[in-house]
Write a structure and sequence with these properties.
The chain is an alpha+beta fold. It has 2 helices and 10 strands, in the order E-H-E-E-E-H-E-E-E-E-E-E. It has a 10-stranded mixed β-sheet, with helices on one face.
């Protein structure tokens, strides 16, 4: 990595065991794709719910040539399970990125699905979370139906994946009732 691995803990004490596991998993990602420019891992304990124990979130931000990739593993009760899930999703996202870069797959192969994770109406963009926890950027111009202003967080969507200038993009975003399966 051009920039050393960055590890941040929010609302939980530093753990040598957790840091060692993060370094191990980041090294495996780098062994798979040696051109990773930077990797930032944020582990946080979320506010405790009354009937649930601790909940953890792991976010991984990767920069590779031509792309910025983000994975968010949310609401796991075991921090190591959240970590494993986030790194598994990051590897799948890297695999997809490699295939797109090599031209092994066309960006318009088959519609993907997910849910609107975040949306900023004022700036005209948002993020779709796929079932594996990957977040994909989309803008107002990429929404097919309904109109951008009618999208809501949590809405199920279908989309096509395309490489953008700096990240993977969701194109032809369509919300509504779809039969997704899985």
């Amino acid at each position: 990595m051009q920039i050393p691995l960055q590890i941040t803990f929010h609302d939980l004490p530093h753990s040598d065991a957790l840091e060692a596991k993060i370094r191990e998993k980041a090294a495996k990602l780098e062994a798979f794709y040696p051109r990773i420019n930077s990797c930032r891992v944020i582990v946080e304990e979320q506010r405790r719910h009354q009937h649930q124990g601790k909940l953890f979130n792991v976010r991984i931000d990767l920069k590779v040539p031509g792309h910025e990739l983000a994975v968010n593993r949310d609401h796991e009760e075991d921090v190591f399970v959240a970590l494993r899930g986030a790194f598994d999703a990051a590897k799948r996202l890297l695999e997809d990125t490699v295939r797109l870069q090599r031209g092994d797959v066309k960006a318009h192969d088959a519609p993907l699905h997910g849910r609107i994770a975040r949306i900023d109406m004022d700036l005209g963009h948002g993020y779709i979370e796929t079932p594996d926890g990957t977040e994909v950027y989309f803008s107002r111009a990429n929404v097919a139906s309904p109109e951008f202003e009618h999208l809501e967080v949590g809405a199920e969507v279908q989309f096509l994946l395309e490489p953008g200038k700096n990240t993977l993009l969701a194109k032809r975003v369509t919300a509504g009732k779809h039969s997704f399966g899985g």
